[in-house]
Amino acid sequence: MRALHVAMGAGEQVRGTTSPNPPVGAVILDSAGQVVGVGATQPPGGPHAEVMALRDAGDKARGGTAVVTLEPCNHTGRTGPCAQALIDASVAAVYYLHPDPTPQAGGGSTTLRRAGITVGQLSAPTERADALEPWLGAVALGRPHVTLKFAQSLDGFTAAVDGSSQWITGEQAREHVHRDRTQRDAILIGTGTALADNPSLTARFPDGSLRPQQPRRVVIGSRNVSHGGKTNLERLGFEHYASPQEALAELYTTGARDILVEGGAGLATSFMELGFVDRIQAYIGNVVLGEGRGVLTSAVSSNLAGAQRWRRCAVTELGEDLLVEYRKDEKL
Question: Does the keyword Cell membrane apply (predicted)?
Fold first, then answer.
């Protein structure tokens, strides 16, 4: 369904700006099936996707169809219930991609049906990225959804023997990383990486200027990064937590739902050992090293039979490099 692709694209555009609310996209079709309204969830406190799409459609929504990436909400919070907004607009049908998993907001489909509106659930297109996946995962887990990101050589090393790692991947891959950062609620690194590399963790354009949307920047570890490092990271806006558990709990409480673990190997190993990694982003550069530093500092499985398997969900060509993404799948 073309309308669903448009709605998913609208949701993708606002990813990274809506947490703790989901990045929902919505489309309104008029009675003839033409797109007359498109909307996406606004930052917290602002209108939801359905309301934005209805505003865009105006009177053309009457007798039409709404296509939404998440079941319309059924509760009043900082904004009114979207199910009632659709009823008030006199739409004839509503189709949604995901049911709302939250007890306080779910049930919109029942309300719509009781008002005489046709309601149906759609199947996700396999070729399209789903901006709601991290939010849905976070709701189910009760903690932020975690993506572990790393760049490696063709033979699996993240740095050469001398420790150099800039640059394993090329410009297109690095630009993709910065675009991806704008869609995250927070980026996490370990204290070792913070002290050794003094990273900014900002999302930048190729010319070095800052992108409008920036993630929270988080350092995890017991070492003090306020003194003795190249810069005072906390003064520059970094949050500092002693452990992954403390970081995830506080980040979730303060609204983060979609976070990226960028380094280093010690922190990556901790998240893997704790079972906190939900998705993997492996940027594979066109270089062979033969020897060097690995992605992790220690084994997370002693044999192949006991090793966790992951389901490949996306492969993206970035110049001479590849981004291969995997998600956790308990069925494998």
Answer: no
- Binding-site residue set: 48, 73, 82, 151, 165, 167, 181, 193, 197, 201, 204, 222, 262, 264-270
Count Cβ neighbours within 10 Å for each residue of 84-117 and write b for 16 or more, e otherwise. bbbbebebebbbbbbebeeeebebbbebbeeeeb
Annotated binding-site ranges for NADP(+): 151, 193, 197, 222, 264-270
Check pLDDT > 60 for residue 230. no
Name the fold adopted by 1-126. Answer: Cytidine Deaminase; domain 2 (3.40.140)
Where are the CATH 3.40.140.10 domain residues in the chain?
Answer: 1-126
Asked whether the predicted pLDDT for residue 29 surpasses 70, the reply is yes
Active site residue 320: no
Query: What is the crossing angle of helices 265-273 and 244-253, to 10°?
Result: 80
Residue 231 has pLDDT above 70, yes or no: no
Residues annotated within the binding site for substrate are 165, 167, 181, 201, 204, 262
The residue written with tokens 């949701």 in the block is 11
Residue 166 or residue 248, greater confidence: 248
pLDDT at 107 over 50: yes
* Domain 141-326 belongs in CATH node 3.40.430.10: yes
| 3-class DSSP state of 94 | strand
pLDDT given at position 332: 38
Query: 12, 50, 71, 325: which one is catalytic?
Result: 50
pLDDT for residue 192 is more than 70: yes
